[in-house]
């Protein structure tokens, strides 16, 4: 199942939108917001939360590894390489936030796959220029933006909606910088989350 998500970055939003309402509890929301949750819900609720958080974590692993592939490709020139590494650091922060929530819920965080696995899933062998690398990153950032924006309306607990909005904001910043680096036109109003 996770391999399918790795192959299709746009599946993030549809997966999260379809399962988040049923799976995320107030306890997970509090944990993601950086607060201790005294009552994280039933064991069943916690197991569901761990499941969806692990899917999100797997997607953050994908983003981190995509930037690793770009950096190791030798195709990125300074200052683009520095920006890519900064964005990778942001995804590591997201990863650590998710791992912390999973562990606090008593779950086991999904492990990162090998770089080769991500390379195959992302078709890294087809990257021939800096532009190719940036277009791949642009696509992944847009998928992440739309995934986080897509779940905001599903939450009854405003704390998680706020966390999702903050993560989406990071992704939009990444997308905008990459879009600019590619010399592409600015998006039309209301382009994200659609």
Walk me through what this model shows.
It is a single chain. With about 190 residues, this protein is mostly helical. It has a single domain, classed as Ferritin, core subunit, four-helix bundle (Ferritin), CATH 1.20.1260.10. Helices cover about 70% and strands about 0% of the residues.
Key attributes of the depicted protein:
69% helix, Ferritin, mainly alpha, 0% strand, globular, 194 residues
CATH architecture: Up-down Bundle
Distance linking N and C termini: 24 Å
Q: How many separate helices?
A: 8
Name of the CATH class: Mainly Alpha
Briefly note the CATH topology name. Ferritin
Query: What's the structural domain tally?
Result: 1
Largest sheet: none
Rough outline = globular
Roughly what is the average pLDDT, rounded to an integer? Answer: 76
Helical content (DSSP H or I, runs of 4+): 55-70%
Write the element-wise H/E pattern from the N-terminal end onward.
HHHHHHHH
CATH superfamily: Ferritin, core subunit, four-helix bundle
Class by SSE composition: mainly alpha
Unreliable residue stretches: 1-31, 33-40
Strand fraction equals under 5%
Overall strand count? 0
**From the structure provided, what is the oligomeric state, counting identical versus distinct chains?**
single chain
Rg, rounded, reads: 17 Å
Short description:
The protein is mainly α. It has a single domain, classed as Ferritin, core subunit, four-helix bundle (Ferritin). The chain is built from eight helices and no strands.
């Amino acid at each position: 199942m996770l391999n399918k998500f790795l192959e299709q970055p746009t599946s993030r939003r549809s997966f999260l939108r379809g399962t988040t309402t049923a799976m995320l509890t107030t306890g997970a929301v509090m944990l993601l917001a950086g607060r201790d949750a005294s009552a994280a819900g039933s064991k069943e609720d916690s197991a569901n939360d761990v499941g969806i958080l692990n899917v999100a974590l797997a997607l953050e692993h994908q983003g981190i590894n995509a930037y690793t592939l770009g950096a190791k490709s030798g195709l990125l020139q300074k200052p683009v390489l520095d920006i890519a590494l900064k964005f990778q650091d942001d995804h590591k922060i997201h990863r650590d936030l998710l791992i912390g929530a999973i562990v606090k819920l008593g779950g086991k965080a999904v492990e990162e796959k090998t770089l080769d696995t991500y390379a195959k899933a992302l078709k890294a062998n087809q990257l021939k220029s800096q532009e190719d690398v940036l277009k791949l990153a642009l696509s992944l950032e847009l998928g992440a933006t739309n995934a986080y924006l897509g779940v905001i309306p599903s939450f009854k607990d405003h704390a998680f909606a706020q966390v999702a909005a903050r993560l989406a904001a990071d992704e939009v910043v990444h997308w905008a910088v990459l879009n600019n680096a590619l010399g592409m036109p600015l998006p039309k109003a209301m382009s994200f989350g659609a």
